[in-house]
Amino acid sequence: MNRIQAVLQARSAWWCLVLTLWLTPQPFAARPHQGRSALVVAYFANRGIYRDPPFYLRDLVRNGGASLLGQLNYANASVVGGRCSLSDPKADLETTYTSENSVSGAGDDPSSLFRGYFHQLKELKRRYPKLRVLISLEGEATSFRQDAQPEHRRAFVASCVDTFLRGHFAPGISEPGVFDGIDLDWEYPESGDAANFRALLLEFRRQMSRVRPGLKLAIAVGDQPEMQPGTDFHNIARLVDQVGIMNYDYVGPWNSTTGFLAPLYRRPDTPEEYSSIEESVAAYRKAGVPRRKLLMGVPFYGYQWTEVEPENNGLFQHGKASAKDKPYRAIKELMTSYVAFRDPVSRAPWLFDGASFWTFDDPISIQYKSSYAADQHLAGIMIWELADDTAEATLLTVAARSLLPHQDP
Questions:
Q1: Residue 167: pLDDT above 80?
Q2: pTM to 2 decimals?
């Protein structure tokens, strides 16, 4: 059999598997959440303004994605020098929107100080009143460590609350109500940080309660509790509304062996150092985080390895990892040049052309994951990030409909 015949045969087998998976009843039929709805949480990164073409919040209105979201985490705020501040004033406040790309369909007043993504968020919430928006605090671990010290903690939290929850984004601007809470992404507290980490969250909770009721406090955590050594997650879970597990990057550019970016399950021949979503969720539950507060992470991007050895169709083989991730919308365009495979255990897809390997999530793997989150009665899913999806919101639509099959998106 020559290479062309082999490729054609592999593609034929692939499409048979696709049809089988779509037509076969799923093993994780989602059940109603006993009077509460599972959340579709997604990150929206302000770097999207620099894409070609730019990614606007208006795009989420056009493709129907905004109506599927329960919560949007805006990434990100800057954590530097003992205070919170805007990470990109141009994207956040200074970009002037036209009638074509604004959420409301009306252009910005160029003389207004309140423009950019922040104004668009306000317009999006006006259009979708049930949508909640959190500001994601991201920074170096050393900055968080310094800010969590007893002598800095209160002032640091006050700067975050005043800037983002009271809406004092810049001189001359007072726009409370754009953000409905804070998502804290400290990657990662070390063993000596555990007490200060808890105290920092307690201070956030204390100061946020003085702004208005109902504000949410969330944290993003590594895929295993051990990534935050010494953290008492049983007590931490009492302070926060959501614990978002970053169930992605189980493999990446730091690995010389290929694997799955975010496998639902571990297949028997998985290298010992690689984990799975099922194992991560079980570990956090064992650590004391209740199901109702756990968000399962879902990636909308993928990674590539080149110079990959051909055994096992490139899976779990040595290769040269590319440094940057690639959005699903771009990976989707590559599929005609590769042979596609799917692991029946982890449900994860991969692409391989004899030398180049891609790992990512697609509609089928995301359908299984969202159904799993529903079956496990988790709080919901947490997507990184919206701009990596197709223009039609392919992945977001599948994720929402699989997580909430008893609802009509």
A1: yes
A2: 0.91
